[in-house]
Amino acid sequence: MSEITPFRGLRYDPERVELANVLVPPYDVVTPRERALYWDRDPHNAIRLELTRDPDEEATTDYASVAETLAAWRSAGVLRRDDAPGFYVLRQRFTAPGGEELERIGFFAALHLEDYAKRIVRPHERTMSGPKADRLKMLRATRANLSPIFLLYEDRGLELAGVLESAFAGGSVSARDDAGTLQELAPLSDPAAVAKLRDFLAPRPLVIADGHHRYETAIDYRDERRAAEPGAGDAPWEHTLVYLANAHAPGSLLLPIHRVIRKGPAPTDAAWRERLPGWEQTACEIPDGDAIPELLARHLTPLADRHAFAADDGAGSLRVFQRPARSGDPLGVKVVHDEVIEGVFGLDEAAVREGAVAFPKSTAEAARAVREGRGAVALYLNPLTADDVFAITGAGEVLPQKSTFFFPKLPSGLVFRSLEEGAEGAGGA
Asked: Per-residue pLDDT for 375 more than 80?
């Protein structure tokens, strides 16, 4: 069963810091240039609890300086630990890439760690060893969960919506981040509300939307501590900090992650036809890179019930490919990897892992890459659905890396969780 527990959050004191100045995107999407920007923005910016200032220092650091910073901020009262345990409800109001104004509500909790084999917490993509080793160093040094793991649950009837909304009646803190998202956080400690959330999720599996490396790192750290302190029981390291959101709620936005083949040459018309037998091809003119989102909405989005993608080599023409989905086919993103990235370009999974394919954050970035010589061909995809993600994880399968982009991202700095003091739910970690 899924076991979530209230915890005593470690949070910025709004009397001492401006929350908007200390929030930072997830550590794994911060660019080197952004790292310096956040580091210099405020001496208490959460980037200082996530990353070294110089990316080159990461390989050798043991993150002892981060542990010292965390302790100093707590001692000075910049970070304060809430008196009572609770869940923390987050309302995010944001503008979608298509211009719609949306709202997503989820909540932070301490989740009892479960091995994947139990099928309670389910991954949807593979991980790499490098990021896990780095985050394990951080967890050992700080003994704190500094970044939440983003999990999805299914609540098609929106049974929890009213419970989550009720948290804001008791007051909240808010800040607008650099992406324009309004982040509003409210603690929820009412016993009946806490019980409702726990009871609803208990029989349901959870799917990792973002944070696979952090979850597996938490498992590794748990196992280390079990070995070092056998018989410790339900210790704080048996849990980790998570954010939970309903995959079917309004505002749960799942975007595609496009692919850019880094090196050419781009296939000719004849090569496309030869290497993709059974696929239909149409083409339209691209007046400029800014027109691509509208062209995709017109020519690719309507093909969501088929295997489809669009190819752009920067030469002024958008090729749109499609074929019927056959019984037994994997999801579309896997078909693109098998039949296009490997079948057309000859790039197997090892080549992808070694960097032959880039995964831009947006359509615009993919279009710029091929027009600025940083890529040979951009491959634009339709997004997966929540049903796709739950179906693939329910079958015990995983997707190619960077198959999903749950929008908006969760910032770091809203709430942290210490592993050093007491038991969950009893006023502890």
From this structure: yes
